[in-house]
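Archive transcription. Copying these from loose printouts into the bound notebook so they stop getting lost. Printout 1 of 2:
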Amino acid sequence: MHHPALRFLGHSTTRLELGGRVVLTDPVLTPRVSLLRRVVPPLRPEDWADADLVLISHLHGDHLHLPSLRLLRPDTRVVVPRGAAEWVRRRGVRRVEEIDVGEEIREGGLRITAVPAAHSGHRWGPRSTRGPQSPALGHVLEADGLRIYAAGDTDLFDGMADLGSLGLDVALLPVWGWGPNLGPGHLDPERAAEALDVLRPRLAVPVHWGTLAVAGLTRAPAGHGARMRALLHDPPHRFAAATERRGSATTVTIARPGQDVPLDGTAPDPDDRTPGPIARGADGPGPVRRE
């Protein structure tokens, strides 16, 4: 008998065990991503080696990361936004298929529906017009009596309330990125808390934080270095605090990269000593419960 499970692997990468399958979202599995480096301990092969299915939300290099996809088994099913499959296939990923907003796929006992996202879908965008372009997506996964929304990268959008009407159990929401600033099409901690007003999940898990930084920037002296060190720690705590201020009924659970996330809203295992991002203050992971 399988049991649903969730592990935050860092950045936008999560491992979901659902419907008898192992799913990875936007896998970034290597120590480096272009000019970015992983500032938390490396992943273990067992975190990703048994993946059955990969969901790619959009084409940006920290979400569609080709070196990471090449680490997976050749028969792993990789699902990309509509229009990107041939471009990905030509770069050495064998089993690729496409999905667009409103379409669904099945994998074992799991049903996955593509939903909108407010974010650039261009590989090099939004500034460049070279290379492939496909719509940015979120995904709703349903199995084992659970409905989980993986937002990918997005800002607030009009149809977000429609997702809330589905009766979400879990929302995996981006709360930052990898640099000192956010470009267009992102949720910051306060806007992510605003999203909960319409999504109304039972549990929210902040992602897209605390994992990647420009090489060397975290070691820089005060100023840019101090700001970057703070941004590797603070966003999920700002998100939890903003959620509390808004009086949300959602439980926020902050997990460090590499840590399991209990789906019942309880705190992560205190004996899980997975090292977290660069420390700032004494805040630890755990749920922020709303009564």
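Printout 2 of 2:
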Amino acid sequence: MSYNWNWWIFFEPSLDGTNTYLMTLIWGACWTVATAIGAFTIALVLGSLVGVARTSPLGWMRALGTGFVELFRNIPLLVQMFLWYFVLPELLPPDLGRWFKQLPNSAFYTAVICLGCYHAARMAEVVRAGLESLSRGQRMAGLAMGLTLVQTYRYVLLPMAYRIVVPAITSEFLSCTKNTSVALAIGLMELTGSARAMQENSFQTFEAFTAATTLYLVLNLLIVFAMRAVERKAAVPGYGLRKES
């Protein structure tokens, strides 16, 4: 089967008549970045709280943390996206449900919340692993200095744990960025959605997804290089992070 290559397609007007296909892809990449940053912010904050709960000496907090992790980690992301977008508004009070469905860019907000909760469950395990890698003496020292348990986590344990698990946090950020493509299923025109729209309108499949692949690669490489700089700054001597030659 012959294929008609056309790399100039990116400079032709898209179906909306206001942008070229290249600008449509760039706007899709912007939606991807916004979704990833919003979702990972939720994941980092919520995941830290759940990770602390998972290592708490209080049994009921450990149970709540475990329940959250097992719930969001073991349901496929695509199923969760459908549940958040199609099912949750029907479970809310009628007025609130209608407001949510009519909210401008509701697909964006739904994707941010869904991805945030999904990756929060994974981040909780990352934070828990970092906390459990610390010696028990650090918690005891904090309590012995007169700090409360909350202050001990905030000022002693979490700062050390974050510095140890920077590589794992980087991996979660990369996964979150790539998982934004699932939001296509609820109508968010992020990068994958924009590439698919270009392919369906122009029939230039290879060009559309080659451009999307390149943009994903650029975004993820930027994250990797930025987080490597953070990793070097946050390296803790004696905790297994080797110095680059």
